[in-house]
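Please review the protein record below. Let me know how this chain folds according to its tokens.
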Amino acid sequence: MLACVGYIIPEYFRWPGYLSPEKGLKFSEMPHGIAAISKVPLEGWLQIVLFIGHYEGYFWRQDAKRAPGDFEGYGFLGVGKNFIINVDPIEFQ
């Protein structure tokens, strides 16, 4: 479902400005979907890989006492348990 969102959103929304000012590449000039893979500069891919690597290495540390993929503080599909606010409907009113 998230992949579909990644295809749909660029059809209706683009960031203003430049993706890479040094290369003169604007967000509005980026193709959609898989065609964008070859257009992202190497520096952009490095930022993506480093961010994901840092996130996984820092937040998703595997505890030997837990089942593989069962990270403390994360629920179903890796969504943080504090991401969804549990509020009593009566208390909310």
